[in-house]
Amino acid sequence: MAAAPPKLSLLLSLITTIYIFLSCTTITPVFSAGKPGPFACDVSKNPDLESFTFCNPSLDIETRVADLVNKLTLKEKIGWVISGSEGVSRLGIPGYWWWSEALHGIGSNGPGSKFEPDNVRAATSFPQVILTAASFNVSLFHLIGKAISTEARAMHNVGAAGLTFWSPNVNIFRDPRWGRGQETPGEDPLLSSQYAVAYVKALQQRDDGDQTRLKVAACCKHYTAYDLEHWKEFDRFTFDAQVTQQDLDDTYQPPFKSCVLDGNVASVMCSYNQVNGKPSCGNPELLNGVVRGQWKLNGYIVSDCDSVEVLFNHQHYKNSPEEAAAVAVNSGLDLDCGSFLLEHVEAAVSRGLINETSINRAVTNNFATLMRLGFFDGNPTNQLYGNLGLNDICTKENQELAREAALQGIVLLKNLGNSLPLSPTSVKSLAVIGPNADDKDFNMLGSYFGNPCEYTTPLKGLTAYVPTVYHSGCNRILCDVAQVDEAKKIASTVDAVVLVVGSNQTIETEGLDRENITLPGQQQLLISEVAKVAKGPVILVIMSGGGMDVQFAKENPKITGILWAGFPGEAGGTAIADVIFGSHNPSGRLPLTWYPQSYAEKVNMTDMNMRPNPTTGYPGRTYRFYIGPTVYPFGYGLSYSEFKHLLAEPLPTIMTVDLEEGHACQSSDCKSVDAVEPMCKNLGFGVHLTVKNVGKLTGSHTVLVFSRPPRVHNAPRKQLVAFRKVHLRPKGEEVVRFEIDVCKDLSVVDELGNRKVALGKHVLHVGNLKHSFNVTI
Ligand SMILES: *[C@@H]1O[C@H](CO)[C@@H](O)[C@H](O)[C@H]1NC(C)=O
Ligand SMILES: *[C@@H]1O[C@H](CO)[C@@H](O)[C@H](O)[C@H]1NC(C)=O
Ligand SMILES: *[C@@H]1O[C@H](CO)[C@@H](O)[C@H](O)[C@H]1NC(C)=O
Ligand SMILES: *[C@@H]1O[C@H](CO)[C@@H](O)[C@H](O)[C@H]1NC(C)=O
Ligand SMILES: *[C@@H]1O[C@H](CO)[C@@H](O)[C@H](O)[C@H]1NC(C)=O
Question: Separation of 611 CA from ligand 4 center, angstroms?
Answer without folding.
Answer: 17
